Amino acid sequence: MRMGTNSADSASGHRVDSPRQRTYWLAAGTAERRSLGTSFQLSHQNSGPQTWQFGKARDGSSEGSPESLECGREWISLNQLRDGSVEMGGMVGRSGLIGGVFSAIERLGPYKATVLIQGESGTGKELVARALHNLGPNPQGPFVSFNCSNLVDSLAESQLFGHVRGAFTDARDEALGYFRSANGGTLLLDEVGELPLRLQSKLLRVVESYEVQPVGSSRSYRVDIRLLAATNRDLLAMVKAGQFRDDLYYRLNATAIVVPPLRRRMEDVDVLAAHFVERYNRHLGKRVGYLSRRALAVLARHD
Length: 303
Prior knowledge:
The chain is of the alpha/beta class. 30% of the residues lie in helices and 21% in strands. Strand 6 (86-88) and strand 7 (91-93) form a beta hairpin.
């Protein structure tokens, strides 16, 4: 996997010909590195390739330790990188911003109140939702997540509220829908800003009454759920533009958690790096215990 700007590499992949460009990439198992595992390589125009070996050393020393590495650099143990960090529900960090998120989860978790989770794509909104569910009054109940951008216009009501047999063409069997499927647990409506206006009024009725009426049925069903909503859009701006109902917005936004992007909490980069190395150690049966300062600097500069 290659990370960086366009440049011309030699056939060996070890040089960057452009004098103005610097390229970083990950390489695995190439013969010239004499590796039995995975390597992290840095190369640029001012120096030759530097390789950090993550495989087992020829001399039999412990895997992932500085003694087993081809290139002697300053190394930091994963334990040092994790020092002072806090973990919650698969999220980890030591910054004040992520600490604020954790505090909000602990404060709101035990209650059944609707929570609006806001943040850019990839910031971990679903992890926040799962943590709220696990701390909530029904952690043993189902956790159901539905991305509202996946709604099929002609079947949207059926997807959310269910339908009875024969309600429409091809409705051969009854369907519960996402609300009734989450009964006794938590329903996360992800990307709720993608809901079309015509469905927002129906969702508002459910949020107010916690009753759903399946398509084709005259009966309403009470649902015992905790409702969470997540979005990467500015719902208040959508309200002002007439694209989102203000009454639904204020119902969903009774309490809110804003998840900051990583670029605003750079002190968490090294903690996250250690976290993922430890995760893949477990998955791949490795024992990598150190990361180099230079590798961490690359991660910190990547946007």
